[in-house]
Prior knowledge:
The complex is a heterodimer.
Chain A: E1 16-26, E2 38-49, E3 54-59, H1 65-72, E4 80-86, E5 92-94, H2 100-109, E6 110-113, H3 127-137, H4 143-156, H5 175-187, E7 193-197, H6 205-222, E8 225-229, H7 233-239, E9 242-247, E10 250-256, H8 257-262, H9 267-274, H10 315-319, E11 326-327, E12 333-334
Helix pairs in contact in A: 3-4, 3-5, 4-5
Chain B: E1 5-18, E2 21-34, E3 38-43, H1 49-56, E4 64-73, E5 76-77, H2 83-89, E6 94-97, H3 111-122, H4 127-140, H5 157-170, E7 175-179, H6 187-204, E8 207-211, H7 215-221, E9 224-229, E10 232-238, H8 239-244, H9 249-256, H10 296-300, E11 305-308, E12 311-314
Parallel strand pairs in B: 3-8, 3-9, 6-7, 7-8
Antiparallel strand pairs in B: 1-2, 1-4, 4-5, 9-10, 10-12, 11-12
Helix pairs in contact in B: 3-4, 3-5, 4-5
Bound molecules: adenosine-5'-triphosphate (2 copies), iron/sulfur cluster (SF4) and magnesium ion (2 copies).
One adenosine-5'-triphosphate sits between chains B (16, 18, 23, 25, 43, 45-51, 61, 63, 99, 278) and A (171-177, 202).
Amino acid sequence: MNVSVGIPASASLALVSAVNLAKRYPVSAGWFRRDRSFIHAVDGVSFDLMPGETLGLVGESGCGKTTTGRMLVRLTEPTDGQVLFKNQSGDLEDIAHLKGAPLKDFRRRAQMVFQDPYESMNPRRTIFDTVAEPLHVQKIGDHSERFERVSETLSMVGLTPPASFLFRFPHELSGGQRQRVAIARALVMEPSFVVADEPTSMLDISIRTGIMQLMNELADRLGIGYLYITHDLAVARYMCSRIAVMYLGKIVEMGDTEDVLQYPVHPYTKALLSAVPVPDPEATRDALSIKGSVSAPVDPLPRCRFYDRCPIADDYCRDNDHPPLEDKGAGRLAACHKA
Amino acid sequence: MTTDPVLVVEDLKMHYVTRAGTVRAVDGVSFAVARGQSLGLVGESGCGKSSIAMTLLKLLPDNARLVSGSIILNGVDLTTLSEDQMRAHRWDRISMVFQAAMNSLDPVYRVGDQIIEALEAHSASAGRDAMERVRELFDLVSLDPTYIRRYPHEYSGGMRQRAIIAMALACEPDIIIADEPTTALDVIVQDHILREMQAIQRSLNMSMIYISHDMAVIAEVCDVVGVMYAGKLVEFGPTTEVYARPIHPYTKALMSAFPSVRGEKHDLTTLPGEPPDLLDLPAGCAFHPRCAYATDECRTSIPPTVQRGDHWATCWNPVDDLGGE
Ligand SMILES: Nc1ncnc2c1ncn2[C@@H]1O[C@H](COP(=O)(O)OP(=O)(O)OP(=O)(O)O)[C@@H](O)[C@H]1O
Ligand SMILES: Nc1ncnc2c1ncn2[C@@H]1O[C@H](COP(=O)(O)OP(=O)(O)OP(=O)(O)O)[C@@H](O)[C@H]1O
Ligand code: SF4
Ligand SMILES: [Mg+2]
Ligand SMILES: [Mg+2]
């Protein structure tokens, strides 16, 4: 089924397009309070991802990154909005409508590397079975072909020699080794779109760099598009051509990674950059201008989501709705009344 | 800070027995942590950092063998304690933030209740006091108090990690082992939590072992740092010394490949070769197949300890001797 809703012109080239995505969770406030409150986990998020492109998604813990990623691969159903995905004939389709063979094809082509590597692993299955499972489900190759392909993928992610890992169980691996099994499991399918949720957070620099190079090479060679969720801005700098910064369910800034990192526009992005620690024991950093405290987005007021913590907020910010994400020049999008 | 040690670990060896052979995950490790001190542990993925932590807490899987060594916490050798005796020490005297933090909350209980349970099992605070303490702890780790009554599945990844940090701090232990405690947190929340933890550490004179791959966080948090490679400590010393004048070629490689958000964007380098196979370690210095400075002795004989004051490393060809290059 082709989509009839207004597709932005640029989206016709896109691999994946998020259109006004929203997810609200009802809040369990307690036994006596039955009035409906909602967490606005994701609140009107839109972007396009091109084939071969890596879009970085960064932002505060709890701001809705994982929820956004899960909606893109249809593991969480949006409350509002759509996810459009380029199908094999090159048309954008609303993934909510997929069934049968097209759904199965989508499941093969869109993979997720989970933030918690345990989430995608059955503790009673060996590493071989874990990585081979998607091949099995999709009936790809016979046993010896799968064995080859799994071994090769394990070496690609630095689990060498593969023979010493294939028949271990997930709990017999270190944290970073498990993370790499999760990456291998997603890549073994040769997908066209991968949501990678903090895929290298537990890896040391050297191994992490190796994985980043592998993912970049696959993007160039196979045209894989990645949504790369990370807290590590240096990783985003090396992995992502564009970056989107989220705060409490909203994208507050988006643009070319290098530009955003060198000249942040939104006060939250500025605060984030000033908090990056430096690898020098003699260095001291000033206390941050904003507090670490997090407000949960329960029934947010119609004002800028960052108002309570913003160092430059004024009365206008208090009395008006959350600012739109708009072009602030040179293709930079930001949502701030004062930027 | 005094130099009186809280924890002294001597020649610790812990191996895993597997069908494919013996994994030498902790292979003769010795170090001490002074009261109020923070020790950072760094090293490649799979080198044995979490294994050391789990051995110190004696929370080992069935296939683990404590081969040798002693773990002396406040004068008591933990290796000689029964499981019952050990249980009295855990949380209360030695506590831990697990690396698989997201997995270590019980999915069927509200998070606040889980922390209250830990508090009531180990200290006098109960009822209202315990609830008050949970609020304090939630504030400390920047969690909204409404989350006290929510279940783990309603938390984001980083929120679960923060709940685990709160739990580890609950009983004010003598020493806390934090295994990658802030990997799932954005830098602002991380900054806040690290500052709070340092403040608590100072006020209680608590010690900490901080495991991380993030050299920048280690630089901010730790007084001393130990660098591990293939189950062994290969370098150890005051953080400022180790960062300014690394002795071991592996440490030097770790320091140089650091990606940054600021300044010129340079090419990232990886360590050549493959991570060591702990089932089948190379002879001599385990790092020799990947080392740019390796000589014949490195391939055959165990390297000697090079001592520079309270900073040491095990290497045949210390890089600081070679003019630092
Ligand atoms: N199943 C759920 N039920 C209720 N609330 C949820 C659920 N899943 C997520 N939330 C809430 O939605 C918000 C966004 O969560 P999400 O996991 O997307 O955050 P995140 O940006 O990935 O954070 P982190 O960086 O900490 O992983 C949080 O406030 C969280 O508490
Ligand atoms: N139960 C087990 N049985 C067999 N081998 C194991 C077991 N647990 C861990 N290992 C192996 O022991 C080695 C050390 O693991 P450990 O978890 O201590 O590493 P780590 O330094 O914490 O790594 P990471 O930074 O990736 O978390 C790894 O090579 C791992 O594969
Ligand atoms: S709109 Fe106002 S409150 Fe919001 S970020 Fe900009 S200045 Fe701060
Ligand atoms: Mg998340
Ligand atoms: Mg570990």
